[in-house]
């Protein structure tokens, strides 16, 4: 075992995040990565604000962060990775043994150890630290010319590419995205990159609607504007595919009306625990409701798309702050009237 003391962004409890030294350990089979930067995600914000993210409750201090990139400081003994290589880190650590993993559905693995998650005890520490030890399979090298601040969007983009794939072929399709935070906005870009001809977004925030248009939405509508939204319900429904990225109960229950017969709804927003759902139109229109959770091989696809410039995520980057300002950065990232994605620099 090797050992090192590094500064890390640690959440102790709700509203108690500190940048503190901690010891990390790694074996010869692992890779030591010097972290360059990382994006603050919804789950980091939830741990900061509530000490929990969905069902995962903090029981001990945990290093935050699952969207990060870095440079290999020490390569694993038996891998093709090299010291100095720039890598995006896939935060997924599926068991690889269970039936779901064997079927290629590693994202659904019941023993998934996802970095920066309090789902299991002891918690799985995240990547918001000067250095982090990972397994070689988690490292996706990327080209010298690519910008780290762009590649740091690989994890949220992977979530969105997975959601787009859940919907099947999008070529020529009309698409609605409800919720235009970083995930909704990246779904807009991923749907357009996948051939959708029309992508409309909704969000109650004017700032989010402007970002949606910057990311390629042909229109961005306030969902409370019934004059506009009622037109989507005419003739059985306007959209072929709807992506629900807000988690808001109103948005979830509104989508069946806006989806054309035989259309598809993909749910990727998490929020309202329960929703009054119009089952009638769902069945008479044979609308398919599909869940979307994290990603599998889409992580590597996301790195390649970002490297090639197929998607430009930079309109979503609102601020870059030093790791010592983590509390301030989390507060800023929590306020969607001021920020979309905030990155920490290590
Ligand atoms: Zn994320
Ligand atoms: Zn598994």
From TrEMBL:
<dbReference type="InterPro" id="IPR036291">
    <property type="entry name" value="NAD(P)-bd_dom_sf"/>
</dbReference>
<dbReference type="GO" id="GO:0016491">
    <property type="term" value="F:oxidoreductase activity"/>
</dbReference>
<keyword id="KW-0862">Zinc</keyword>
<dbReference type="InterPro" id="IPR011032">
    <property type="entry name" value="GroES-like_sf"/>
</dbReference>
<dbReference type="InterPro" id="IPR002328">
    <property type="entry name" value="ADH_Zn_CS"/>
</dbReference>
<keyword id="KW-0560">Oxidoreductase</keyword>
<dbReference type="Pfam" id="PF00107">
    <property type="entry name" value="ADH_zinc_N"/>
</dbReference>
<comment type="similarity">
    <text>Belongs to the zinc-containing alcohol dehydrogenase family.</text>
</comment>
<dbReference type="InterPro" id="IPR013154">
    <property type="entry name" value="ADH-like_N"/>
</dbReference>
<feature type="domain" description="Alcohol dehydrogenase-like C-terminal">
    <location>
        <begin position="182"/>
        <end position="307"/>
    </location>
</feature>
<protein>
    <submittedName>
        <fullName>L-idonate 5-dehydrogenase</fullName>
    </submittedName>
</protein>
<keyword id="KW-0479">Metal-binding</keyword>
<dbReference type="Pfam" id="PF08240">
    <property type="entry name" value="ADH_N"/>
</dbReference>
<feature type="domain" description="Alcohol dehydrogenase-like N-terminal">
    <location>
        <begin position="28"/>
        <end position="141"/>
    </location>
</feature>
<dbReference type="GO" id="GO:0008270">
    <property type="term" value="F:zinc ion binding"/>
</dbReference>
<dbReference type="InterPro" id="IPR013149">
    <property type="entry name" value="ADH-like_C"/>
</dbReference>
